[in-house]
Amino acid sequence: MGRCIFSESLNESTLNASTGAPLGFSAGPDDGRAGMRLLQAAAAGTSAAFRCAMDDLVTTAFPSDCRVCNRPLLRSTVLPICDICRASVQPQTSSMCSRCGEAIDIDLESACLAGQLPDEGLLCSECRADEPMFERAVAYAVYQGELREMIHLLKYEHMDRVAKLLGRMLAESILTLEAEAAQELLVVAVPLFPAKQHQRGYNQSALLANAAIAELHHSHPQWQLRSLHTLMERHRDTRSQFELNPVSRRVNIQGAFRVNANAIVPGCEVLLVDDIYTTGATARECARVLRRAGANKVWVATLARAQTPQVALWDDTRLHAAQRFGYEAEGLSDAIAP
To answer: How many domains does the chain have?
Structure first.
């Protein structure tokens, strides 16, 4: 399969050529025209045209593929992820638990108008049965598709440059807490066990947190976010949470963290940052030790949220089917029952 040697933006802005050809195929042989367009654009002083011509020259001389979707990259970039994959990661839009962010299949607007929601907001069954010690957990997007692949590049393929891109998404998630959280927050990344961090070369959660803080310092300088990743350490190695069920996750993570008592300021508010919120076992345990060490409030922000299959609470048939498959929605149905 041939490669596309002209970017679509260049075709539209400088060549006035048709862009109907499928992506991934060349519009014709490259006989030095990319270099000629580069010189012409530079002479004309048109920055957009110059950039497009430079993209064509670089991608022609050094062709490469997107590390997420494997399509050819159409512009030069230090991060090998195409614009399509970047744009595919969209924020969550479903109704969610006001405490942990679990997705709930309910028309929230209709429920509010009908006065069927409790004062504390809509809570999932787990938060109603076992209240977490953090104030609220937020996440930018669902852990799936392109976002999942980008996180894997960061965690398992040593592509730490992805953190800057993902940190911008995390910053948007953190912004949803601005009205509730204190104006001064200690930002703490969920720590890795030292041996695991040495093997990986970095703590991906710390990279994401630092990238998000840098973004927010620029856009919201009045919000004082100070990173203090050494505040908490993981002193006990644990099994990978990925291979455990929810109950085993809590047992596995219990007692794995401790707080540097000399570094924490009693009464402070802490923003805990992690890459993925799955069942909440890690966030709950970290919040517990931080609160016991003297933190007044703990907020949780993650890049991604692994959502369980949603349940249509207004449909009894689907609700009962979901309960047969182990999704506990009884507390939610009671909370919104007419």
So the answer is: 2
